[in-house]
Every structure is written in structure tokens, then in C-alpha cells.
Amino acid sequence: MAKKKTETKKTPKKPYKMPSFKLSSQQKLVLGSFLAIFGILLFIAFVSFFFTGEADQSSLSNFASRDTVSKNWLSKSGAWLSDFFIHRGFGISSFIFSVLIFLSGLYVLMDIDKAKLRKHWFWGLIVIIWLSVFFGFFVSLNDNLGGAIGFELNSYLQDYIGIIGTILVLLFCLIAYLAIRFKLTFESIAKLFSFAKKDIKEEFSNDEEDEFSIAFDNNLSVEAEDIKSAFDLALEAEDITKEKVVTKDTASKLKVHVVADEDDIELEALEMKVVKVKEELSETDNLANKLVEDFGQFDPTLELGNYQFPPLDLLTKYDSESITINQEELEDNKNKIVDTLKNYSIGIASIKATIGPTVTLYEIVPDAGIRISKIKNLEDDIALSLSALGIRIIAPIPGKGTIGIEVPNKNATVVSMRSVIASKRFQSSDMQLPIALGKTISNETLVVDLAKMPHLLMAGATGQGKSVGLNAVLTSLLYKKHPAEVKFVLVDPKKVELTLFNKIERHYLAKLPDSEDAIITDNTKVINTLNSLCIEMDNRYELLKNALCRNIAEYNVKFKARKLNPNEGHQFLPYIVLVVDEFADLIMTAGKEVETPIARLAQLARAIGIHLIIATQRPSVNVITGIIKANFPARIAFRVTSKIDSRTILDSSGADQLIGRGDMLFTQGNDVTRVQCAFIDTPEVERLTDFIGSQKAYPEAYALPEYVGEESGMSIDIDISERDKLFRDAAIVIVQAQQGSASLLQRKLKLGYNRAGRLIDQLEAAGIVGPFEGSKARQVLITDLTSLDKFLENEIL
Ligand SMILES: Nc1ncnc2c1ncn2[C@@H]1O[C@H](COP(=O)(O)OP(=O)(O)OP(=O)(O)O)[C@@H](O)[C@H]1O
């Protein structure tokens, strides 16, 4: 058993990745034209060699001397190269080299998929060798036909298998080549010979019957009618269901053997071979393979092919970055912890310190028999004795069997954005949406995948590092993702926090088609954007459904492999990250109208690549509601002022004991990790957005689907005859209460939300209530019941 366990623990070896050599467009132009021209030069030199080769023999030995003259059209170099390739190499087949080199140049110039080029080289080399061995037979005619290599290989083969053997080996190679390269089969050769036979058969069959190939026994001619009915009979006998459509293709492969008696034309036996129809799917597959072969995989980054990812230098290196170990402080804290615990008669078996960027973790193993809850209760006493804020006791540390006491360092170190972006963990991560959040207490960079979270909730009191945290998230994505791969929808009611990202509007932002600003600062517009995202979500689900994919990653892989037809609406789908700063403000002003689409997106959008990040400085239960919490398992808590706030965010206390300035607790649903958030200052964000913004961009920001909201003043035309039966009652309720709200109708008429909503729409169309006004109830346009009666009577007239 034990052995088994150790075996399973072995970490799998990482597959070796080939280094990729990506050439810039300029390099491609230089290399491509060099190869193409070199190919042409070789060709000219080779042609010339057959006229001037003999005369140039003597010049070859004096290549270095300037006085030696060569007759080759490309002079001494031409003479030398053609002697090397033709005379000493592969003979006449060396011409293929010049073609292959020229072709390579074209492939590089036009940036065509290299897989096809490799194929050309592979088969080209095989043909070169075969031809030179073949021409080796004719060395007596001209030794340049097969070249030295062809001659040597030929005579080598002859020494071992003789002339006949060599010819047969060459013949076999030729057949193998034709079979593999041109998919030649024995049947296709046989087909060539069967044309004459077919002509004879056609005499016995009319138009329909030439779909069958018929073999007659006893050379008997059977009427076409009979054959057809026999065929039908056979279909019935074999109980082939009607749905099985036998295509013309299949039918042509059907063979009906009819055995008939000499005097009687009755059919005795019927043998039928049904060839299965090829699945339609594999046909698109083959087409896709061919497309990929011809054009390579679809590259979504092609439109901004020259886009340069931001360099690390844009981010600042801070002086106080490296952790300095203050031995005195460590010793002092240790003594205080030990003494305090001793005062409560808690003995310690061992103590260990791990120094993090902002806090040091003291891990203690208490003496046997000590209750853990006893230590946990001493939190305040230990804090008092250490005279420090932000002490957190983790009892026990999950998975370790020790008790942790986190004590803030006197001099906290800054975790720079630069250091986390430069970390190997971030650079080599192959996550879909990697985010470098900061450093853990053991000083390791914490990199998480937003796509897996799948949404993130950030909360904390004001001034504790939320905005910096949001910037860190956005920066991580900007450093790792191409503009084609991710789009942001930014909502910033504070109007100042995210403005810098305006510069990258046409690279990375998404917006509604008719809106001017990509960053949404107006709360009423947020509702439109959220609803538009819901439409985008529904559209994407439709695309995924049609493509038979379960998630966006699968879909994009399929699209890149050219298995999805853009004419059917398929397109490469970028991830969409919705960032809402100050969520509380939104909920306060728009309430349900915001919560409903947010909840819908949070529940459903994970598979189709829409991820939400919402930040709030007011972590109260009416902002972070149950529905929001249920859909945001990944949460970040910066410092908050009360235990209740901490519980609201994390479902546990702890955030109230943080020290601020980016000190945070992160959870993805289970363990809570203390992390020092990476710090990025406004000038750094500015440099970053300037760098990206100065590059070539898309003509427009990514367009979200249009959403026509109720508040857009669109008049709803509803036919009187289509009105709800309760229309009159609803109108009376509304006019009596002088309050146009759907919830009032729900209560008074005991209706569901949808029906009440429809009634309000109809009342608006009739002109009884005014248009939608955000969170306020609609205005009632009719003042009393008498006017209402008159109004409705006039309507009927
Ligand atoms: N990760 C960090 N490392 C060091 N200092 C930080 C960090 N994060 C924030 N700070 C400090 O805290 C200050 C406030 O941060 P920030 O503006 O992000 O707070 P906030 O929570 O967004 O506040 P508000 O809600 O008022 O916008 C920053 O100016 C910075 O000095």
C-alpha cells in the first residue's frame, strides 16, 4: 500500500517544449527574398553547368585566384556550386534543390504554414535520391546524370543485389512513393483498365441502373425492370430502414449478383454488399485539415500582428523590495509569544518563523494536551503583549498541524508589480487568464487563474488598497494577453480610478455601439451594458451549441483549427472581463436592475468566457447579497473595520485584523491565504497604457451587442385586443395609488413578476403611466378614476 502511495505522488514530467523562433515581418522579408533569389541563382548555375561544366573543370582547383576565369553564367561561384551539387552530388536531380530553396523563400515571404514546406522538402529529398540512383545506371552516357552519389549508391546496391535486384528495389520504391504521396491504390489502377468493360455493361443498363454494377451468371441478359425490382426486394428482405439514405455514391458501390436460370428469368439469389456512407462530419474535418494545411491555423492576433507586449521596464523597481531580516525583532517577538503563552500555562514544544513581505508567521507546536481553542482565545492578549496591530492566529494551520501567529513586521516591504510580473511562476504560467496578485507569507508569488475562479469579489474599507488591487489584476492581464484575446468592460462610478485605461480603448476595451466613452461612469448606462453582456452571453451560448463545444476554450481551439465556418456566424471569441469598481454605489442607485443581470452573468457566463470582478468599499449584506455571494466563490478582503464586515466578505473573521496598505486575505472557496497585494502606482499604469495606446489599434473598440432598454423612450405599441384581461383592474390600482410600479400590481392583484411587468408595459403603451425612471416608480399620467373611465371609453371609440 505504502509503495502505491509514493508512486502516485510522483509529479509527472513536464513535456519538453520546442523553442519557437518567431521572425518579425522585416526578418521574414530579408530571409524570404534571400532564399528565393538563391534558388534562382542555383537554377541558372545548374543550367549553365551543362554547357560550360567541362570547360570550367580546371578553374575549380584555382577557385581562390582572381586570375582564373570561369565560363559559368555565374562565374566561379556558379561553377563551384554546380560542380558540388551535380558532379559531386546528386546529378541532374539537383535541380530539385534549387526549386525547393526557391519555394522555401516564397513560403517565408508569404508566411505560409511551414508544415507543408517540410512535406515538400521531405518528398523532394526522396525524389532526388531515387532519381540519382536511377540515373546511376546511365553513368556511361554522362556521369553528370546521376552524380557521384547516385553512381556510388547504384554500384553499392549492384554489388549486393545485382542489376535485377537494384531495378526491382527502385521499382518498389517508386510504387511506394506513388502510393503514399498520391494515395494511389490497386483499385484505382485497376479502374484504369476497367473502362472498356464498363462500356459493355452500359449496354445492359439504362440511366438508373448504371448506379449498380451487375454481374451476370450464365451470360444471361436480364431486363432492367427485373433488376430494379430485385434490388427493391432485397432492400426489404434485409429490413433496411427507410431513413437510411443510400446516396448515389454508395449506390455506385453496391454490387448485385443476380443468378438466373436459363429458361426462367426468376431471381434465385440476391447478394448485396452495402458500403457504409461516410459520416458527413468527417468531411468537414477533412476540409478543415486541408484549410489548415493550406493556410495554417487561424491566428486571431494577425490583425495586430506587430503588437508588442509591454516590457518590464515600464514598471518601477522599489528600493525596499528585498526582505531584510531583523534578527533582534524576531528574537524579541519570539520571547514575547513564549512568555505570554507561559503566563497562561501553555508550554511550547517548538517555534519556527517564516518572514513574509509584511508579516512574519510564527508557527508553534504546543505541548501535548493543550487545547487549541485556548490559544485562539488569547489573540488579544498576545496582541497586547506584542503591542502590535494586525495579529492573526490561525489555529491550526490547515494541513500542517501547527498553530500560526502572524505578526506584522516593523518595516514592511513593498511587493512591486514588477517583481510579480517578472516571477517565473507568472511568466511560465499557461493559465487562460493569469493574475499575479502578490506574494504570500512564505514570499511566493501568488498567481491565480481568473477563468477558473470564475468571478472575483474584492472588498475592503476605503484606502486599504482596493484600487491598487484592481490595477494589479488589469496589469497582469495586459502583460500576458494579446488585445485579440481579452476585452475589458470597465465600470467606474468614481470616474477617476480607471480613466487611464481610456488610452487602450481600441486595443482592449469593449463598449456599446452607440456610447461615446468606453469606460462607463454613469449608473444608468451600466444597466444597458449589463443587459448587453447578457445578450452577448446568450449569443455565445448559441454559437457554442452549434459548434458542439462545452466551453470557450474548446470553441476557440476548434475555430483556430478552421473547423467552424465564419459564414455561419462563428468567430474567435475573446474573453470579456467586466470590472465594476464601487459596486455598492450601483446597487444603491439601481438596485434589482443591476443585481439581476449581474447574478445572471455570474451564474451562467463562466463557460463562455465572461468573468466579473466587482469591488466595493461597503461590504454590507445589502450590497454583497446572498445571490452575489453564492456566485462569487473567489473573494479578496482588504482591511475592514469590523468582524461583521469580514464575515460578510469571507464568511470568517480575519479581515478586521489586517494592517492595510495592500495586506489582504484571499480565498477561492476553501482556505484563506494572507497575501501582500502587488503594488502598482498611477505613473506606472500611465506608462503602461501609454505604451499600449501608442501602438496600432483596431479601428473601433470591441462592440457589444446593442440593447434597447426601456428607458430609451421607445414607444411600445401594443394592440388593444392583445391586452391582459386584468388591464382595467391594473389601471385602477395604479391610478388609485398614484404610483406606477410593477411590485404594487404584484401585491394587489397577486401576480407574478413577469405578468405585472407586462401589464406595466401595456399601461405605458396606453399612456396611463410614464416611462421608466430607474429605481423610482413611474409617473401616473391620469389623476383619478373618473378620468380613467373617460380615457378608456374614448379609447374604445
Ligand atoms: N499593495 C500595496 N502596497 C503598498 N501600499 C499600498 C498597496 N496598496 C495600497 N497601498 C497604499 O494605500 C493607498 C490607498 O490605496 P487605494 O487607493 O488602492 O485604496 P482604495 O481602497 O482603493 O481606496 P478608495 O476606496 O478610497 O479608492 C495607496 O495610495 C498606497 O499608498
Automatic annotation (TrEMBL):
ATP binds at residues 460-467. Keywords: ATP-binding, Cell cycle, Cell division, Cell membrane, Chromosome partition, Coiled coil, DNA-binding, Membrane, Nucleotide-binding, Transmembrane, Transmembrane helix. It is a multi-pass membrane protein. One of its GO terms (cellular component) is plasma membrane. InterPro entries: FtsK/SpoIIIE/SftA, FtsK_4TM, FtsK_alpha, FtsK_dom, Ftsk_gamma, MFS_trans_sf, P-loop_NTPase, WH-like_DNA-bd_sf. It is found in: Cell membrane. The keyword Cytoplasm does not apply. GO terms for molecular function: ATP binding; DNA binding. Pfam families: FtsK_4TM, FtsK_alpha, FtsK_gamma, FtsK_SpoIIIE. Residues 260-287 form a coiled coil. The keyword Ribosomal protein does not apply. This is Cell division protein FtsK. The chain crosses the membrane at residues 29-51, 90-109, 121-140, 160-180. Belongs to the FtsK/SpoIIIE/SftA family. One of its GO terms (biological process) is chromosome segregation. Residues 443-647 form the FtsK domain. It comes from Confluentibacter flavum.
